[in-house]
Every structure is written in C-alpha cells, then in structure tokens.
Amino acid sequence: MRRALLAITGLAASTTALVVFKGSPGTSQVAQNLPTAQPVNPSGPGTEPGAPGTDPTAGTPTPSGSAKPSTSPKPGKSTARPSGTRTTKAPSAPRTTTKAPQSTTRRVTGNGFENEYGYVQVQIVVSGSRIVEAVALSLPSGGESDIHSGDVRNSYDGRGGEVVRKQNANLNTVSGATETSNSYKQSLRSAIEQAF
Hints:
Blueprint: H1 2-23, H2 28-32, E1 105-109, E2 113-115, E3 118-127, E4 130-138, H3 144-156, H4 162-166, H5 178-195
Antiparallel strand pairs: 1-3, 2-3, 3-4
C-alpha cells in the first residue's frame, strides 16, 4: 500500500513539473530532458488500468496557475490578416438561363399552277416542323368547277384536312376533280419545299 501511495505521489509530482516546465517559455529544453514516468495502477496489482470503477486521475492534484491548453482558431473563422493586404471576392460564374424555344408559326405560299379549268394556288401554315393548316388561295370557279373546287377544298383544306393528317403532298385524288386535285398537289409540294 505504501509503495502504491509513493508511486502515485511521484507520478503527480512529475506530471506537475512537466506541465509547469512546458507552460513556461524558455524551459522547453529542460522539460525534454526529464525522465518519463511509467503509469502506475492506483488500484494495485491484479486490476487493469481503465477497468470500471477505477479512475487513473483520482487523487492527482491540479496545478494552480498552470498554463491553459492552447486553443486553435475554429474552422471557418478567419484570423486577423496583416495590414496592407486586400482580399478580393472571386468572380461569380455568369448566369445562364435556358428558355424553351418558341414555336414559330409561319405561312408559306406555294407556286400557282394553271390547268384547263383555272388557276390553283395553296398556302400552308407551319408551326415548328409541322403543317398545322392548309388553305387553297385560288381554285377554278364557274359552273361545275365550283362544285369540284368545293370538294377539293373540303378534302384537303383546314386544320383537320388530309394535308394536316398526312403531313405531305401524297393526297388522295378527289373523284370528279382530277385536274384540280393534281394542281393542288403541285402547289402544295412547292410550299412544303419552301417551308422545309
């Protein structure tokens, strides 16, 4: 028991001396030459240090006036910068905005074609890469031509006509209006070539 008490007292004394020497400036050389003390188990032989119920620092006196542990600056905090230096903010990346491409609607008029019944010319309305409407600007008129031109207009023109459904000039020929149908297809084909 006496040996354990002496060992604890010796350990406390050497720890105190080490803290004092390390804390005072100019004594670091002396502190380095001190012998290091081996840890002593205060609970006595047969028990492991750090076992539950044992406190290796119990009974170790705290030196008064000892040096405070050094504190380093916290991460993210800036330290005082030397006078005369300037810090500049890094330039930010340019803003990029992406807008959806606007759909452009345009009207394209095909070439006019003359047949034995009259003059035929077609105009298409294009939105993006699609034909959205077809309109016959000129069709043969007078007599039976009015009837046949009406049939052609009903089959091909408008937003729901065959031109919009097929998206090309490969249209079915309107019965009884073959010449007018063919002229319509030719004018339509020239409008499509201009549009696309």
